[in-house]
Amino acid sequence: MYEEKTYEAIYNEMMTSVKTNYPGLDSRSEGVLGIAISPCAMELAQAYAEIDTILDESFADTASREFLIRRAAERGIEPTPATYAVVKGVFNIDVEIGERFTLDDFNYIVTEKISAGTYKLECETIGSEPNSHTGKLIPLDYIEGLETANITEVLIPGEDEEETESLRDKYFISLSSQSFGGNIADYKEKVNELSGVGGCKIYPTWNGGGTIKVVIIDSDYKKPTDELIEVVQNQIDPVKQSGEGYGIAPIGHVVTVAGVEDTTVNISSTITYQTGYAFDDVRSYIEKAIDDYLLELAKEWDKENALVVRISQIEYRLLNVTGIVDISGTTINGEVVNLVLKDNNIPTRGTVSD
Fold first, then answer.
1. With CB atoms 3.0 to 4.6 Å apart as the test, which of 170, 245, 282, 303 could cross-link to 323 if both were Cys?
2. Residue 128, class by beta-carbon neighbours within 10 Å (0-12 exposed, 13-18 middle, 19+ buried)?
3. How far apart are the first and last CA of the chain?
4. Could you give the dihedral angle defined by the CA atoms of residues 300, 303, 306 and 307, in that order, rounded to the nearest 10 degrees?
């Protein structure tokens, strides 16, 4: 708003005023008056810059994170906090609750027994970084009889603190879609706040009056584990006390939680390579390009009726892979058409061939 109020502009305005109103005074920039006005113009320019900053911080669309959080708090909205990943550990023996292990740069602590030799472990590092790490665990203390220890899967992904733009979107959504007493907006708002949930779709009266189906995707935008579905179910509407209001759901709402399903996407194309390149040279880059595209689609699942995997998008992304000069004849699951998924399915890469 005050971008034009620079030091030079203010200084020139002040000197022009002197020349107009006091023509007998020395108005040279190197004169006493010019030297005296200079620091005043500098201070005023700084003041205008700070006023501009205050204006930006006063409105949600331009506020920085600190002031956006304060603005959102006025509507009872807070950034989703970071959480710890929960993983499945498989051992050749039973281990004690509280035993600690390490994998790569992360430490884990045993928190719950699932079955003989199988336990839940919680990562001691908060956030999403540990989500991609599975493999051999090393005990931090000697455990007699321990021969094998492995993380086999991530049960509940860890999450980073909500990003600024996501919080900004949530603030504006709260203005246009009022959540109240178990309506769809209320369910979406509360379910999306739960640890491990990356998005959801709500289906009211899906099995008669008073029934609600909640379909979720995990915070890594993958099919959720049975353990995550169970945790979310107990937080929304515990099965043994269904409809009694012991969870997030209001009294009388019988809620069923389910997860998205995977649809395998097999891709075949006729690829022309640069001299010196072959399929095996660029396979990993092709797979990454496809994975990135499918992840983008999965992130939009809760906003779309049904996802569409498009041949044009696949070819466009593969043409950006170093070593590829042309691509044609792309098929998805053997068909030369876009793949339209079911409303609660997300795409996962299958085979890739040329």
1. 282
2. middle
3. 56
4. -10
- Multiple choice CATH, 177-259, 3.30.300, 2.60.40, 2.40.50, 2.40.10: 3.30.300
Query: Residue 232: which of 206, 261, 197 has the closest Cα?
Result: 197
CB neighbour list of residue 57: distance below 8 Å, 6 or more residues apart: 63, 64, 67
Report the predicted TM-score, pTM, of the whole model to 2 decimal places: 0.77
Nearest to 154 by CA among 126, 137, 134: 134
Domain ranges of the chain: 7-58, 84-156, 177-259, 263-353
Q: How many CB atoms lie under 10 A from the CB of residue 286?
A: 24
CA distance 102 to 17: 72
Q: Which residues of the chain are modeled with pLDDT < 70? A: 24-27, 29, 31, 177-179
User: 191-234: per-residue pLDDT in tens?
Assistant: 999 999 999 999 999 999 999 999 999 999 999 999 999 999 99
Q: How many CA atoms lie within 13 A of 189 on its CB side?
A: 24
Strand-strand pairing, 100-103 and 138-139: antiparallel
